[in-house]
Amino acid sequence: MESSVHVHEHSSRGGGKPSRAKKTVTQKDIARALGISRGTVDRALHGRAGISTAVKERILSTAKSLGYAPNKFAQLLVTGKKITIAMITPSDPFWVRVHEGANSYLSELGEWLLRVTWYETTVHDPEREVALFQEALEARVDGIGIAPSDPDLLTPWIDRAVRSGIPVVTLNTDAPESDRIVFIGQDSAVAGRVAAELLAKFLLGRGRVAIIAGFKNVLVHKLRMDAFRDAIAKDYAGVAIGEIYESHDSDSEPYEIARAIFRAGIAVDGIYLTTGTGIGALGRALKEIGVAGTVKVVCFDFLADTLELLKDGTVSASIGEDPYSQGYQSVKALYNYITDRRKPDGPALYTRMDIGLRANIDLLGY
Amino acid sequence: MESSVHVHEHSSRGGGKPSRAKKTVTQKDIARALGISRGTVDRALHGRAGISTAVKERILSTAKSLGYAPNKFAQLLVTGKKITIAMITPSDPFWVRVHEGANSYLSELGEWLLRVTWYETTVHDPEREVALFQEALEARVDGIGIAPSDPDLLTPWIDRAVRSGIPVVTLNTDAPESDRIVFIGQDSAVAGRVAAELLAKFLLGRGRVAIIAGFKNVLVHKLRMDAFRDAIAKDYAGVAIGEIYESHDSDSEPYEIARAIFRAGIAVDGIYLTTGTGIGALGRALKEIGVAGTVKVVCFDFLADTLELLKDGTVSASIGEDPYSQGYQSVKALYNYITDRRKPDGPALYTRMDIGLRANIDLLGY
DNA sequence: GTGAAAGCGCTAACAT
DNA sequence: ATGTTAGCGCTTTCAC
């Protein structure tokens, strides 16, 4: 295909106003060159049945030598095909950003090509995810994006869908053992290391930190936790890790945990929360205890509470996982796969890792 | 326009395989509804000449009530218009990422709509920028993206182009007084504040920092410098700012500057370099002096040198400006403006601010 | 000022 | 196995 990227040759007379594109090769050209009909050319080009291998060969080779490229607009105009993608996700503020990203991929031209149907779950409701997954399959969608909160439960369903030709991507949280065509989300291990580096640097390399994990056994949290511990152990000998608590991704539990820590008289210089949920409660506790700002806190995501606590210094830094592009990339990957069976390069497509500080809160948030 | 976003209704029987899009309203429908011809409808819809205001009104209103939306594919198929955008930029590793971003906007369908011509400058060569700008105008391109290294010199040219209907966007560095339709790049003031926050936190809020500005009077550097100073003065009383040096964006000068600082016996705990250029030289000096890692360094961008120094701890953090999306957004803004005179929301479109640490270098780099 | 008709490049149904 | 033809929705030329 002719590239649309050009480096300006200095001698220059090129460029062009909005003008008819320069002569492009069509099926008709091929047909004329070979003295055959346009229908046959079309059949050859698409490998459709009812054509002798001999002419097919000739057509294909002259197509290539003439530099034929199909005109997508004409194709789309005549077929009028519209693809449906199902996205099975929660719908809280974090996920709203995912939706926005997904929707942006269908802007302009996209709207004619694609429709995205949202199947709403609530956070951590694996059974409902399975039920919706089945509904999507029954609705005969062309592709599915899902954030499997219980990989073990979803994996057989994902595998079944993929086997039957319906591509599935996992986003935000993975089902690594499944046949999903790709995972799109944060590299949790790197995130854990970044958290470790930030906290250690904010403590000038020495002190005691507590870890509050969302769920000790949910993949994302576990990875964020383990990588954090490894990084501290490896690179920051002066930092000690104390107890590891579990907040069950609850909005309130971090409050109790923090109170318990200080009630027990444990000297803590930093707290690492492997989620964004519950940061409000944690901040409230630290303020009540009178150590907000003194105890350095690193957490995840940019929910309203987080932004506020970043602003007043209670949270030192928060790590984002770019929900917008999680949505965007999921739809894009599915679309590309559905239209030309094109798989992403690797098993995972990592979204960037935004680091939120007080100074840049205006640029963050969801 | 009918949206392509759907929330799954739980009663569900919806969805759909790749199927003919459901009945969409065409010009023909409008014509039939009004008992007039399709040509007239088209004229009304496009405000073309030769039509009575009476019928025009009726057409427009029924078009709206029927929910008519033009079929872009049909439009494009028949007009075959291809737009040319000129990008006037340097071509070093940083700018290669900008190119990649720009090119990605013309992927797939885009290639049929758009061509991007690159006009190569070298860093800080204002005269050449003007010359290339003129060339682009003569080549009758449909839009121009440029990183004006001397805003005063370029502004009259930008204004002239815009007046004559050729939209211009500035990227990476702005010409704020010009009529460019939008600036796409980093919010330098926020970047300066982020640098201040990082450095202050890495120093636990006390110490002495030196500033090395690329150019004290080049807009970007000046903003990064001033915002840094203001933020330190306002929020971090324990941090003192010493001398301000100028490296002239040179690859080597930071070496001399660092040596001079320490030769003079000035006690410096942190160094803020408002650019990425010359970080290699600065790192070399600090290593020779024996203070690499002790003196905290914050700088910009993720060039090869920077990544290496982040890795070995000589640089504590570096701030990226997302060159990829500078390219992507520039082309997108120009395209939207050219095709439907749609201006971006504000005068500036700020790209995100990546913070590079040792732990996430693998995700950065250009 | 309005209608009729050709045709963009392609697919698909119908001939042969 | 191959040729012919009728559109997809739109723009544009040429009649009237």
Structure notes:
The first copy, chain A, has three domains: 25-57, no CATH class; 77-186 and 325-352, Rossmann fold (3-Layer(aba) Sandwich), CATH 3.40.50.2300; 188-319, 3-Layer(aba) Sandwich (Rossmann fold), CATH 3.40.50. Mean pLDDT of chain A is 91; it is low at 11-21. Chain A has helices at residues 27-34, 38-45, 53-66, 72-79, 93-105, 126-138, 151-163, 188-202, 219-235, 253-263, 279-289, 304-311, 323-340; strands at 5-7, 19-20, 81-89, 114-120, 143-146, 168-171, 182-185, 207-213, 239-246, 270-273, 296-300, 317-319, 348-350, 355-356. Chain A is an alpha/beta fold and 366 residues long. Helix content of chain A is 43%, strand content 18%. In chain A, the strands form two sheets. A six-stranded parallel β-sheet of chain A has the order 4-3-5-6-7-13, with helices on both faces. In chain A, strands 9-8-10-11-12-14 form a six-stranded mixed β-sheet, with helices on both faces. Chains A and B meet through strand 1, strand 2, helix 4, strand 3 and strand 4 of A and strand 1, strand 2, helix 4, strand 3 and strand 4 of B. Strand 3 of chain A pairs antiparallel with strand 2 (19-20) of chain B, so a sheet runs across the interface. Chain A binds a DNA duplex (16 and 16 nucleotides) through helix 2 and helix 4.
